[in-house]
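OP here, attaching both records as promised.
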Amino acid sequence: MKSVAIKLSLAENVKSFVNIVSKYGYDMDLRAGRHVVDAKSILGIFSLDLSKPITLEVYSDDCADLLEEIQPFKA
């Protein structure tokens, strides 16, 4: 499992982020405090406090391609 801090401050960022992560087959969650949502769910992401960085948890160790593609969102 890999964890990365990301920042999604604009609605366009959330849409782009979901489009990227949806292309990958691994399971991913976003964690903000004690709240956890599916990283591929736009509605789930909007239920989080996006004013602070959130943690992306990828349940795969072979995800270098994904981490490279989400580089612009890293906090």
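Record two, same layout:
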Amino acid sequence: MNTMTKRTLWWLPRILGILFIIFLSLFAFDVFGEGYGFWETLLALIIHLTPSIVLIIVLLLAWRWEWIGTLAFVGAGFLYLVMAKSQHWSAYLLIGGIPMLIGVLFLTGWFAKKKSDQSGTP
């Protein structure tokens, strides 16, 4: 496997993870239009940002250990697919499918790293 492919497999899930967390965080801004007071708005914002905060922690751990990213992102996508009821197919694809794709990319990068380590090539 050449250096460019290894680099791509290392960076792609991390960049997509950051972009997905930003995308997911945008949905938290709907609390500002609800007419809550300051403390209610702050609490609602924290509650809406909880999945993003969890994914940030997961991404930080996955930066070093790809298997954590594999399990957590695939699990997050699957959890959304199981918990979401009566959503449009695009919501399932975006909010459930993208984290699964990121998890698969972490898995691919993990296997490539293990194969590279076993063969002794940098």
